[in-house]
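Project standup — Tuesday

K.O.: blocked on the structure for the chain from last sprint. Re-posting the sequence here as requested.
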Amino acid sequence: MDTAAITQATVERLIRTEVDNLQNDEKKAQAMAGLCILLTQLQEPSVPDELIGAIPFFFSLLAADGAEADRGMQANAAAVLSGLMALSDDLQNKIIGQGIVGRLIVVISAVADTEERTLQLNALACLTECLRDKEQEADALIAAGGLEPVLRLCDPALPERLQEAAADVVCAVACADGARDALSQQGAVEKLAGLLATPNHDVRVRALMGLGMLLSKSNDNQLLLAKNSAAVVNLLAIMRQQEDQDCRIVARDIFAGLAGNSQCKDFIAQAMRA
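H.V.: unblocked you, prediction finished:
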């Protein structure tokens, strides 16, 4: 007997039950939370039609604003949509085609300065999933003013998981060559440089990856980082530590680029003497 198939069939049955429960006001919140968990156990070829059919319902939750917005439900809606997009390119395209990027920008902008950490985290993760291999969506994000609230959340004072999620979005945008100028103009280099001080591997590696993309072909960005003595000191510290080899290698490559730029050398020397 194929136990994997039985497990999958059970997951599908439970998903159908929870989708039915979305119509029950008393069960709706629990159903949303259940779907978030069940999605992590679902295999793409067997996504129940009922769940796909419920996508407009999840959008309706994200569309609520002001006093009508249930932030907990919105957080779960973002998680469900993110999980669906992660399952297949077809589902990613379907959800993007319904305007999810614009809706997420509105939500993130509304809660960027609040304590709604779960919604911030889930909305950022959903946005990253939207941007996966989608240069057109990166352009749409920029055009809609979506970089500013995301960069606001690249803040070393915030929880590390939130820093990581925000830096993930920046890296996803930076993968689109045409988006890098906009990132630079809106302060992404300074924001990512500020995250280098964190001891968290996941945050540091994303900050370094983002900086690597933004600095590789930009003399102005290299100079901007070189003038940031705290960032240079943190870069050197990452290069010298032995515990995190991935970060060490990326930091070394960034530093080599700065050291090879004649305009940066004096600033680097000053930072090293400080």
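K.O.: great, moving the ticket to review. The chain has one domain: 3-216. Residues 3-216 form a domain with the Leucine-rich Repeat Variant fold (CATH 1.25.10.10).
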